[in-house]
Amino acid sequence: MPSSPKIVVGWRESVALPDWKIPTLRAKIDTGAKTSALDVDQIELLPGRKIRFDVVLSNQHRRRRKWITAAIARTTKIRSSNGERETRYVVETSLELGGLTRLAEFTLVRRENML
Predict the structure, then answer these.
(1) Nearest-10 Cα torsion for 26, 100, 73, 79
(2) Which of 34, 53, 65, 72 has the most CB within a 10 Å radius?
(3) How far apart are CA 104 and CA 92, in angstroms?
């Protein structure tokens, strides 16, 4: 099977999450991470393995957020850079980067205190 063409990306890129109608979001690319993290402010569990969360649209203006309701794909244990382990919810959505669209998994994390 032929491999898909590779694209070159920088350590910061603009991405879109079209299923959630988020046309642009700044992303930090971490090739050493096993999963992608999505910066959220609040998380609410809903019946039927659903979750509601507000995506932070700008680190400079954390009040700019968009509420999303999604299915919980799974949970996972993440080891942070300081060695602590935490359980995070994982959701799936389409991700656009460099003209390509792929289904991607994201863990939900509150990064306000990490800036």
Answers:
(1) -50
(2) 53
(3) 6
What tokens appear for 111 in the block?
């990064």
The residue length of the chain stands at: 115
Listed by start position, the domains of the chain span 12-114
pTM > 0.90: yes or no: no
Separation of CA 83 from chain center: 21
Query: Tell me: the pLDDT tens digits for 50-61?
Result: 999 999 997 777
Instruction: DSSP letter for 34, please.
Output: S
Dist. CA 66–CA 105, nearest whole Å: 18
Compute the chain's Rg from CA coordinates.
15
Write down the residue that tokens 């990306």 correspond to. Answer: 9
**Which SS3 state, helix, strand or coil, does residue 35 take?**
coil
* CA 7 to each of CA 4, 17, 33, 99: distance values in angstroms, whole numbers, following the listed order: 9, 18, 18, 10
Which CATH number is 12-114's, of 3.90.78.10, 3.30.830.10, 2.40.70.10, 3.40.50.1220?
2.40.70.10
Q: How confident is the model at residue 115 (pLDDT cuts 50, 70, 90)?
A: very low
